Amino acid sequence: MWVVLWLVVWILVVIALFVYFVFLDNQKKQKSDLWIESLDSVTDITVFKHSLSAVVFVNPVLNSVKNEMHKVIVGMDSFINAIIINLFAWWHLLVEGVPWLAKTKVIQTFADVLHLDFVRVQFTPDLLPSDLIWVDIYNNKTKKFETQVGPIVSNILLADEINRTPPKVQSALLEAMQEKQVSIWWKTVSLPDPFLVLATQNPLEQEGTYPLPEAQIDRFLFKILVDYPDHSEEVGILDILENEQDILVKRKMTHQQFVAIRQKIEGVKVPDMVKNYIAKLVQKTRQKHRYLLYGASPRASIGLMMAGKAVAFLEWRNEVVYEDIQKVYLAVLRHRIVLNYDAKVDGVDADTILLELAGQVSL
């Protein structure tokens, strides 16, 4: 009798706890959804939302590069725009997306169109820094070890699934990304110009991965989120696949043209009012916020300015305007802010927070 009674009591307690936590979770989700939906009513954030896909290629040379890539690549405008901006801003790109979305194909095609050296390295848990930077090979004729540079000495290095390799290998990239050189024993080897690291992260299967340290993440100008194609794009992929053997991708830029374009981008003017706007956007992330743990570093301000210059040149202007900064805002900042636990519990991501903050900054 008493056993049955205790069993009934425990069942009722478990049911009550279950109902309570389900109700609490629904309340948090509704609260988060209402907060997210209210952003559009506060300010016009259309340009921020469209982000890199809103960049219009008016520059004839770079427009021909993009058109040539679209011979074999369907859609993915934000990704293509991000690669071009990063290359000419002389920074690096972090790409996050599930496998099978043709990220490698986009990068390989870009290298072919610009006639650049392209190397793909699969980052695995057993990878060593020497596998990336250099290796000592014994020469039987001279009876000495000879140092041979590794795959890092290239124009475009695809670090595939960079978060699957230990921190020691990840840190081996830092000098290359920042100084455009690598140190091999007592020697310093300069990397070719241009040098671009395109690192991919797989958001699935996080077991056994090594999150990138904040110092390294800050070296990437953009973090791009690659998603599945829509219906029309998927049909276009199938059409291209049928005729891919007949499609020839041509070189559309010489090294001299590349150097000249980069010099012109560096010469694009940034008015004081735009610099002030950049500073306000970045400093807004450092103010106290219920979902923010840390704000963006000064590299975010530099990144916004450099990316804004590239966007202005792509749109055939010699001066940066507010909209140029707004188009690259999310890509530059989404990996530079650190969210707290409450944001994760409420299901709020970095883009949502950044859009709210941007709406509070006046021109």
Please describe what this structure looks like.
It is a single chain. 50% of the residues lie in helices and 14% in strands. The chain has helices at residues 2-37, 39-42, 46-50, 60-69, 77-89, 103-114, 129-132, 167-179, 214-217, 231-243, 255-266, 272-284, 298-314, 322-333, 341-346, 350-358, and strands at residues 92-96, 118-122, 134-139, 144-149, 156-160, 181-184, 187-190, 196-201, 220-225, 292-294, 338-339. The chain has a 5-stranded parallel beta sheet. β3 and β4 (144-149) form a beta hairpin. It starts with a helix and ends in a 5-residue tail after the last helix.
Keywords:
363 residues, five-stranded parallel sheet, alpha/beta, globular, Rossmann fold, 11 strands
